[in-house]
Design goal:
Elements (H helix, E strand, L loop, with lengths): L1 E6 L4 H13 L5 E6 L2 H10 L3 E6 L5 H13 L3 E7 L14 H22 L8 E5 L12 H21 L5 E5 L8 H5 L16 H13 L4 E2 L3 H12 L2 H13 L3
Helix pairs in contact: 1-7, 4-5
Length: about 260
């Protein structure tokens, strides 16, 4: 049975992946939708043409990942795509935040993503693909967003290395690095802090991010960056010392830009 697994499928970019692939992926037997909200997953599943299987669970729990792995084994599944979108961010100075929320970011953004990827690789075949949701925050350390940016730097570097390791097996890995996206992400992230005002002016639609990510994955590109401002930021992050860029961003924040 050919399947696609999407974590974080109940909202935002994960939900958009399910919607777009439902229209264009005809040789898939089932979509496996993973998130904590059963109600949202049921609503999404009801809108899709493909047969779906719902896993309402917290993937930071080992027993949840055991259930997913057991299901793949029992169904003799061929994982054609694994799309890791589950995660969250918290803004504000690190020392002022709830430690459980900060460490929770590491568990879901890094540990769960790594564990699930490791478990699913044995079920992949030649031509299978992995899409890992990183962020443009991975390009540069970000005071006020320190743990989130660090977790996404991990995802980007892990994905680039994994892609090299798996290439000879015909499995291709794409790390998606969007800038600000119009999703519920900021409703959570800005509950404890605020971001640069300029980010609101370069915000893109989730549909654009997913469309570009699927295109880049199809062409076996290791990284997907959606918009011109974020592509320019990526170039700057490689061309200039990070200390200079951090000072510029600090001045922008002080001026309310």
């Amino acid at each position: 049975m050919n399947i696609i697994i999407i974590t974080g499928a109940s909202s935002g970019i994960g939900r958009e992946f399910a919607r777009q692939m439902d229209e264009h992926f005809s040789r898939i037997d089932e979509f496996w939708l993973v998130a904590r909200s059963q109600d949202r997953l049921l609503k999404l599943a009801g809108s899709l043409r493909h047969k779906t299987r719902i896993f309402a669970m917290d993937i930071t729990r080992k027993d949840s990942l055991d259930i997913l792995e057991d299901a793949a084994f029992e169904q003799n599944a061929a994982v054609r795509m694994l799309i890791n979108c589950a995660g969250y961010g918290i803004m504000g100075n690190f020392s002022e935040q709830d430690a459980l929320l900060e460490t929770g970011m590491i568990r879901i953004n890094c540990e769960a993503l790594t564990d699930l990827t490791h478990r699913m690789i044995p079920y992949m075949r030649w031509g299978s693909r992995i899409i890992q949701l990183a962020s443009s925050a991975a390009f540069l350390p970000q005071p006020g967003f320190a743990v989130y940016a660090a977790t996404k730097a991990y995802v980007l570097r892990f994905s680039r290395a994994l892609g090299k390791e798996l290439r000879n097996a015909g499995i291709y890995v794409t790390s998606v690095c969007p800038g600000p996206v119009d999703t519920p992400f900021f409703d959570i992230a800005e509950a404890t802090g605020s971001t640069l005002a300029a980010k609101k002016y370069i915000m893109v639609d989730a549909g654009q991010v997913v469309s570009q990510a699927l295109k880049d994955s199809y062409h076996r590109r290791p990284m997907s960056v959606c918009s011109l401002p974020v592509k320019a930021f990526h170039v700057l992050s490689k061309a200039l010392p990070h200390g200079i860029l951090l000072n510029v961003l600090d001045q922008m924040k002080k001026k309310g830009l």
